[in-house]
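Q&A FORM
Asked by: J.P.
Topic: structure of Uroporphyrinogen decarboxylase

PROVIDED:
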Amino acid sequence: MNLTEKARLKAVLAKEKTDRPPVICSGGMMSAATTAVLSDFTNNFHNDPVIMAQVAERIRLNTGFENLGVPFCMTVEAEVFGSTVDLGDAGVEPCITEYGAGELAAITDRPLPDPLTAGRSPVILAAIRELSARNQDIPIIGNITGPISLTTSIIDPLRFFRLMRKAPAEVSATLDYVTNYLVTFAQAQIAAGADVIAIADPTATGEILGNVNFQRFVTPMLLRLVREIKNAGAGVIVHICGDATVLLDSLRELNGAVLSFDSIVNLPKAKVVLEDIPVMGNINTQMLHTGEPQRISSHVENLLTQGIDIIAPACGISLATPQINLRALTTVVKRFGR
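REPLIED BY: S.T.
REPLY: Here is the structure written out as tokens.
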């Protein structure tokens, strides 16, 4: 079986047999745009689509990951909703410096943004078109921020979590509203050429929300996103940070997506609970940052022998992560089964 990188990933998404697991780093929250890569470019890698596409291609070349993923941050959608963003540089990641709203009503009372024109959304779409035009056999992964993480990037998180108790109906309405934008943004990325959409919701952890709140506030939004993305013709990856073990029953409902987990989760045990849902992960990113290549290789080998469907970092990668460590990760996977 001699599969292209795109065919291999699509096969896993379709729950079909492959020669080996893909090894990817999706972009967005889970980006391998490290300082070692970014320092070779101007500081326009977050707002120039041509440079963004070039960075994505350099990441794949330097690390061996089997995909192209944009953007390289989780601030695009929050900026669209009025939050102020510092784009950083080759050594500092983009971050929110001022929230775009003080009340939930200030979010929902605005006209719904258009991803074709709002903020940096058109930059992401243009970068995807650039990548799609010249990479036929490599999967292109577009990224969106999950509803909880997006809303807590627009309004102060502590206020938001208090409102989950005091005004749950208003919270649900706000999450539904921002999900409307995420649906249209994901659809626009697919129309531009994205093969897969990765949804990262790092704030929607089991530790923060618990299963009851996750089921009430998060599951309906993720179900809608998964359904709309699949209807638009793309695959879906959903990443939840932290110890998602208490959320597995809720996550089982997302049967149309690959589920990506943090390093704290025992992936083989999660795989048993999730039955035939493909799982992805979960190489500890601290180990990728500071560990020895041999230790990384051994950890990857363990995941491979335990039948993990897609090998990937467990969470966001430090900008200071050495390229040799990322290459150690991908090399072991590509040799598996030979």
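FOLLOW-UP: The mean pLDDT is 96.
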